[in-house]
Design goal:
Low-confidence stretches: none
Strand content: 25-35%
Bound molecules: adenosine-5'-triphosphate, magnesium ion
Number of strands: 10
Strand order of the largest sheet: 6-7-8-3-9-10
Shape: globular
Oligomer: single chain
Mean pLDDT: 92
Helix content: 25-40%
Radius of gyration: 17 Å
Amino acid sequence: MADVVFFHRVTQRYYKGPQILREASFRLGEGEMMFLTGASGSGKSTLLRLIGSLTRPQTGQIAVLSQNISQLRRSEIPAFRRQIGIIFQNPSLLAERTVFDNVALPLVIRGHSGADIGRRVRGALDAVGLLNKEKAFPITLSGGEQQRAGIARAVVATPKLLLADEPTGNLDPEMAREVMQLFMRFNQIGVSVLVATHALGLIRHLPYRIAHLENGRIDIQSADDAAAPAIAEKLI
Ligand SMILES: Nc1ncnc2c1ncn2[C@@H]1O[C@H](COP(=O)(O)OP(=O)(O)OP(=O)(O)O)[C@@H](O)[C@H]1O
Ligand SMILES: [Mg+2]
């Protein structure tokens, strides 16, 4: 299995801040879904930012979608990022645009036709249960609804790799389960997925590997790989 994300002895420390990663290594396989866990402040968001090339590591190698991150030129970063759907811990929706326009943005940037945009945006909004909010402005949405709009925006252009940072934090248990199932469905159609989460109860029984971040190291807790596809099939 080719790697979609490859970390080799990556070290990361913020200026005058704590040491986040200490020669940490791990890999996310092509088409794999994996969870990222760890205490608050352990570095989950930082790790996702490194993958999305929003932050650069001090030392070590990071390859994402067959590209060596440290060799990316500044001018190449936008095209690189377009291959990745990122769901941020705090969804940053544009306040002066409707939910529809916010979700449509990645497609507009990629030059999709109007008809295609309409079809895809409604499909994504439907998947997160927000079809009735397409004309609403972000300020009128609840925290969970904003979070779901952020998810729709991240998946609308069917990225090869989906990174989600605590995507169920503001959701009730039922909606949280539905969002996890949405990620699983994406994974079933071939999207590689990495989800940072505190919701251990929600993921414990799911058939995916868990990358646990602690003291700057990544510890991989294996799921039963052989059984995973069959179990996932039953759950979604
Ligand atoms: N830009 C920054 N400059 C300096 N320190 C930072 C910066 N961003 C994060 N940190 C620090 O790095 C550590 C890891 O932060 P990070 O946001 O990656 O953790 P996290 O695992 O995502 O936490 P949470 O579960 O609370 O979201 C924290 O101690 C944080 O205070
Ligand atoms: Mg975080």
